[in-house]
Design the sequence.
């Protein structure tokens, strides 16, 4: 029984797919008609009397546009349909208008009136759409009208409409910068709205506008009073606004809050400011004190780390990275959250988490060293992911885990299919060699024979690094020397082994290496290597010839010093001239003088002057040639693999403000929450997880009617100064009516103007609706009379232009 | 921030584009850059066009989705990627899964409207599909009719005799104030109230055979002719996990009327779930005070309630957490030390009847010993073995029953290997010991099965705590499913 039903339902499923395909062919039929005929067909549909035809016409237009074709030629036909009562058609027309209004502003203006009328629609969704589309029609001349509409919708009872208004404000400012003051005024009202949905949109708009508001501190004015409330409601916003808000508040904190202080728990008991770089924290155990507001902000993030939106986690990480020490980072479990994203199956997203982890691990590797195994490279990882993982591994190495990590890195170096990965792995090994140099060195020497090209270069760098580290250590000199000699000897054997063709670069590196450690090896190896190389000097590539010259010079300089020390002055000249190393040097010098390369010739001349013009210069020469070189910068890993540019830019924050410039904490005294509802029940009564636990000030109502029915959980109480006058219901409707009438008059005027065009008939039906609208959409008007006037003025000017 | 959204097929032919204003570039003008980048598979999903603009893209099975972003504000670099994810969620909610090109093409007007809501002024606006359903009526009349009849059929299948049509809120008048739960659409009505929990765990692990004693190795190489012999040498060589984790996901499908408050109790069995992430609807405080309790008002339709991770590195009994399938793997066997053996041990568990899409891939690459030219199978008990070239071969078992022991023995043949007959004629023991073993680089397992999850996580109960709008007498149908999948299940030589 059940079986047969499931059969039927699967049949129906396939039938559905089939019909969808049939629908495709129906709607594409028009799109596929020859392009010469198409516009005619479509305009016929758009001008039809039947809604169904118009709808399919609109569908065609929209689908043409979404296929990358130009839909501008249908402009007039489409705009005509804006008066339709069919919401489906209207939505499509509005979408079209937003896109093309700029191209034909004059025709587009005809539609304004009817969109404005939708602002009185019963359905809040349609009102919201209307205000959004009105702002989406980016024609500067309508800005005054738009502002007027916004003035009404800003106190709409539905949060959807107010949210849409918040978005529209951003566009108004984009179109006309002179509205800045007005827009900011409205926006700060919406930022203080009681509904999270509205705050969500307002934050998005503010975030976007902030970029263009200049550098002054004035743009932060709307945030001051809302800071504490935002901390309370951040979890109720949508994922985008959460990110934006955290970033805003992070920047705010750097600007307006005092820097946290660290109380070090070492012997000095120092109190220091939180340094920019975590590396600069001198002692790992400390207490920290935050400013109260900063603490509030950081506390508000505590539960957000459980968010499923990765972008929010990234924002939190940024906030803590720039506002708090590693201790707080760990206590909020942000490190675990980042590791979670890094190991998730969404590869692209995990890449950014890896990048961030490597940036943070650079400053404090302790945060992640527990989970180092999470950064092992899987064979399916892409090169970019593998690179970041290797980088992190090399940063996380410490005494406890180096055994595992180095073993793992060796595996990648030896087995990875991708040359790039093994190269990176060698680099990473080089970094690790600080911890366990002996084993790595001997392993590397074994590997030299199997490797070629860039990998060999990396390998030699690693060897050089570990040797140099050793020679820098002063302890246990005899032992170290022994090892250096051994290593150099092994390398010289590799150099002489003709069975595997060393590439020029690698050869040059080894020769340089031998020369560099002449002193450490008591010049036991250099002369012999030199002897073997002289024969083939002419056939060697340029880099090798150059290095041979350098080796000869170093070797000779060492001999010179030795002779000087051991014999009296008068014998020196003779001894030097008889010395085999000297003879080899002179020979190579001779050869180099005629080298094809400028560099080699140049260096040959320089060495000639230094070493062949008497013993006084010899001192200088030895200084010159045997100066201890800095160990190769193996940390360069991060430089070469280049952190993601977008991420680096993202992590940039402004400097902490000077403590003297900070405004008093009282600026953050909470402003009043704007409540605009008519008896909708609060969320908190439905879901206890939503809306409780907020430390925000209790919303107070500006409407007499709404206060009683508002929010069953919280008792409304009035705090702070009264910025807002309570209106009685009569006042409220009274003022509204006046306003409404005035507007209607204007609209009628406008209509008369618009009617000049040929679309007369379609605009007719509008005036009759006005009386019913007022009762449905009561809204509060709080603007001063002065503003009213200026609005009216600008409207007139607009009409005159029209 | 976002300037345009393009959807193209896998060959970079435009299917859909949405530009936020007229000055945004058309897809055509970007095609050369994009097709160049598309060839580079290993790249980041990020194409820089010029210092001001960059494109982020995501590749699905048959679609390429591009989002053009401006660089001015240096905002959160994850936002475009998350936006694409939300877009995919919305599209699959509206147009059904799997997302086919034809569906997008047929509904491009709806999609335009959707993106118009999802993006405003270049900033993500309403991206939750539950909310979008309220703003944009979902389906055309025809498909709505079909889907209702569809639901009718399924309701009949569930032996429910009531035959009311579910009322999709899109068509109803919305005079009453909208529901204020941001993740749930308002006025949800169903005739059959159903809810389903899916627990899906993905195993990612790198395994390594524990080092065998030298003796056995020598022994086995001496007995190379009897290839069946060395497989029985030791019942199961120990595998050591080098690194691994299980990714868990709890999916929820809700078809419930009204605004129900649910409680889902999980038996965690002392597992360490690390730091889980939760859907917006979950009360995190509740979870923290009593771990294992998920209390929530579900979103309508599909949602991911929770993601968790089980760390195999710190777990005591990591080997027990790998699920039903364990592997016995040896390599470097035989005279030329170029043979390997893979034996799968599939435990017999009541709840799991079969393993699906079982596949073993073997990747060989030996640099020092010449290129791998072929991999031969010497013995195979189940499924097919194919060599795919470039040292990659595949043992495909498709669907197998539990409680069996499939076995594969193979030989790797490299380019500079002596011909076989000459090798056989001179079985020189000294030579044998000096031969360098040729091993596969790694072996990768792919499988999935239903019925249990490796961590042993279980749903204890799923209760309706309060059923506002559903009626107290209604007992919703409940279903729980456990699914195990392999992610990166890798065995190193």
Sequence:
């Amino acid at each position: 029984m059940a079986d047969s039903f499931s059969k039927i339902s699967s049949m129906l499923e396939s039938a559905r797919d089939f019909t969808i395909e049939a629908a495709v062919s129906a709607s594409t039929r028009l799109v596929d008609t020859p392009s010469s005929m198409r516009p005619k067909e479509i305009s016929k549909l758009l001008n039809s009397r039947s809604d169904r035809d118009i709808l399919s016409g609109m569908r065609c237009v929209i689908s043409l546009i979404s296929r990358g074709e130009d839909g501008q030629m249908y402009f007039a036909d489409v705009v005509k349909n804006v008066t339709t009562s069919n919401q489906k058609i209207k939505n499509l027309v509005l979408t079209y208008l937003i896109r093309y209004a700029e191209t034909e502003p004059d025709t587009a203006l005809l539609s304004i009136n009817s969109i404005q009328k939708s602002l009185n629609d019963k359905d809040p969704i349609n009102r919201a759409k209307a205000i959004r589309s009105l702002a989406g029609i980016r024609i500067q001349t309508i800005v005054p009208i738009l502002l007027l509409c916004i003035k009404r919708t800003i106190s709409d009872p539905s949060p959807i409409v107010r949210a849409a208004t918040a978005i529209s404000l951003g566009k108004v400012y984009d179109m006309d910068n002179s509205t800045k003051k007005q827009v900011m005024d409205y926006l700060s009202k919406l930022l203080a709205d009681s509904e999270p949905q509205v705050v969500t949109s307002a934050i998005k708009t503010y975030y976007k506008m902030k970029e263009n508001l200049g550098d002054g501190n004035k743009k932060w004015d709307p945030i001051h009073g809302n800071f504490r409330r935002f901390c309370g409601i951040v979890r109720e916003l949508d994922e985008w606004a959460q990110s934006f808000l955290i970033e805003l508040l992070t920047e705010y904190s750097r600007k307006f809050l005092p820097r946290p202080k660290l109380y070090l728990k070492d012997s000095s008991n120092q109190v220091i400011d939180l340094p920019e770089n975590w590396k600069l924290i001198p002692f790992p155990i400390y207490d920290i004190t935050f400013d109260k507001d900063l603490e509030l902000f950081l506390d508000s993030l505590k539960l957000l780390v459980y968010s499923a939106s990765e972008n929010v986690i990234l924002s939190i990480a940024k906030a803590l990275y720039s506002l708090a020490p590693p201790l707080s980072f760990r206590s909020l479990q942000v490190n675990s959250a980042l590791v979670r994203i890094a190991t998730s199956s969404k590869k692209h997203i995990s890449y950014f988490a890896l990048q961030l982890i490597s940036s943070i691990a650079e400053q404090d590797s302790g945060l992640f060293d527990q989970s180092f195994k999470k950064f092992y490279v899987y064979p399916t990882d892409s090169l970019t992911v593998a690179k970041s993982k290797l980088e992190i591994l090399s940063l996380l190495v410490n005494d406890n885990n180096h055994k595992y990590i180095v073993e793992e890195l060796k595996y990648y170096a030896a087995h990875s299919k991708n040359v790039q990965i093994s190269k990176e792995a060698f680099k990473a090994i080089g970094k690790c060699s600080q911890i366990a140099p002996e084993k790595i060195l001997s392993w590397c020497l074994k590997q030299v024979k199997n490797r070629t090209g860039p990998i060999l270069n990396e390998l030699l760098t690693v060897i050089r690094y570990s040797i140099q580290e050793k020679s820098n250590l002063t302890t246990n000199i005899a032992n170290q020397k022994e090892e250096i000699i051994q290593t150099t000897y092994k390398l010289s054997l590799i150099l002489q082994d003709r069975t595997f063709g060393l590439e020029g670069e690698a050869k040059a590196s080894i020769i340089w290496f031998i020369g560099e450690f002449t002193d450490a090896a008591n010049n036991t190896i250099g002369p012999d290597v030199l002897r073997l190389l002289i024969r083939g000097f002419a056939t060697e590539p340029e880099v090798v010839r150059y290095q041979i010259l350098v080796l000869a010079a170093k070797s000779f300089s060492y001999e010179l010093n030795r002779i000087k020390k051991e014999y009296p002055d008068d014998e020196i000249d003779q001894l030097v001239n008889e010395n085999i190393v000297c003879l080899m040097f002179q020979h190579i010098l001779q050869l180099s003088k005629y080298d094809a390369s400028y560099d080699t010739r140049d260096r040959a001349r320089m060495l000639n002057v230094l070493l062949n013009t008497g013993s006084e210069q010899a001192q200088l020469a030895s200084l010159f040639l045997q100066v201890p070189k800095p160990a190769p910068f193996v940390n360069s890993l991060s430089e070469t693999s280049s952190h993601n540019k977008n991420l680096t830019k993202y992590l940039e924050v402004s400097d902490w403000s000077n403590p003297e410039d900070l405004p008093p904490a009282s600026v953050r005294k909470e402003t009043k929450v704007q409540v605009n509802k008519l008896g909708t029940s609060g969320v908190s009564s439905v879901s206890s997880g939503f809306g409780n636990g907020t430390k925000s000030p209790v919303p107070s109502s500006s409407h007499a009617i709404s206060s009683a029915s508002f929010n069953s959980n919280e008792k409304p109480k009035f705090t702070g100064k009264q910025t807002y006058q309570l209106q009685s219901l009569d006042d409220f409707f009274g003022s509204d009516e006046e306003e409404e009438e005035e507007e209607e008059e204007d609209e009628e005027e406008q209509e008369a103007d618009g009617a000049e065009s040929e679309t007369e008939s379609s605009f007719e039906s509008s005036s009759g609706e006005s009386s019913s609208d007022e009762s449905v959409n009561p809204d509060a008007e709080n603007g001063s009379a002065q503003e009213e006037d200026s609005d009216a003025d600008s409207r007139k000017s607009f009409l005159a232009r029209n | 921030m976002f300037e345009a959204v393009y959807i193209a097929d896998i060959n970079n032919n435009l299917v859909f584009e949405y530009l936020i204003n007229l000055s945004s570039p058309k897809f055509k003008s970007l095609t050369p850059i994009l097709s160049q980048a598309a060839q580079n598979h290993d790249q980041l999903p990020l194409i820089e066009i010029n210092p001001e603009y960059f494109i982020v893209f995501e590749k699905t099975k048959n679609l390429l989705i591009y989002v053009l972003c401006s660089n001015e504000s240096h905002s959160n670099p994850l936002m475009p990627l998350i936006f694409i994810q939300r877009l995919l969620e919305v599209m699959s909610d509206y147009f059904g899964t799997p997302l086919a090109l034809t569906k997008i093409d047929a509904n491009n007007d709806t999609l335009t409207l959707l993106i118009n809501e999802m993006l405003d002024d270049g900033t993500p606006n309403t991206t939750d599909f539950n909310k979008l359903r309220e703003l944009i009526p979902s389906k055309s009349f025809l498909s709505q009719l079909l889907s209702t009849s569809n639901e009718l059929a399924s309701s009949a299948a569930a032996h429910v005799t009531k035959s009311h049509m579910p009322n999709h809120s899109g068509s109803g008048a919305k005079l009453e104030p909208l529901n204020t739960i941001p993740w749930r659409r308002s006025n949800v009505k169903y005739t059959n109230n159903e809810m389903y929990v899916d627990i899906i765990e993905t195993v990612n692990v790198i395994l390594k055979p524990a080092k065998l004693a030298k003796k056995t190795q020598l022994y086995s190489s001496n007995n190379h002719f009897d290839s069946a012999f060395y497989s029985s040498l030791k019942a199961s060589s120990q595998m050591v996990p080098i690194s691994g984790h299980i990714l868990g996901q709890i999916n929820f499908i809700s078809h419930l009327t009204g605004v129900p408050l649910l409680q889902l109790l999980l038996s965690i069995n002392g597992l360490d779930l690390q730091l889980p992430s939760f859907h917006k609807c979950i009360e995190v405080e509740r979870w923290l005070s009593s771990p294992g309790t998920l209390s929530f008002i579900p979103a309508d339709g599909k949602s991911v309630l929770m993601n968790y991770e089980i760390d195999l590195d710190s777990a005591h009994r990591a080997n027990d957490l790998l699920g039903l399938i364990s592997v016995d793997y040896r390599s470097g066997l035989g005279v030329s030390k170029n043979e390997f053996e893979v034996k799968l041990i599939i435990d017999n568990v009541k709840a799991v009847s079969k393993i699906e899409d079982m596949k073993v891939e073997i990747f060989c690459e030996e640099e020092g010993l010449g290129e791998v030219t072929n991999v031969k199978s010497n013995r195979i008990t189940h499924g097919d073995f194919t060599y795919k070239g470039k040292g990659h071969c595949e043992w495909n078992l498709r669907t197998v029953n539990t409680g069996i022991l499939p076995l594969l023995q193979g030989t790797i043949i490299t380019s500079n290997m002596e011909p076989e007959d000459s090798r056989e004629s001179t079985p020189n023991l000294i030579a044998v010991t000096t031969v360098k073993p040729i091993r596969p680089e790694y072996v990768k397992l792919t499988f999935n099965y239903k019925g249990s999850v490796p961590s042993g996580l279980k749903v204890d109960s799923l209760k309706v705590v309060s059923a506002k709008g559903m009626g107290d007498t209604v007992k919703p149908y409940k279903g729980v499913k456990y699914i195990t999948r392999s992610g990166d299940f890798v065995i190193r030589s």
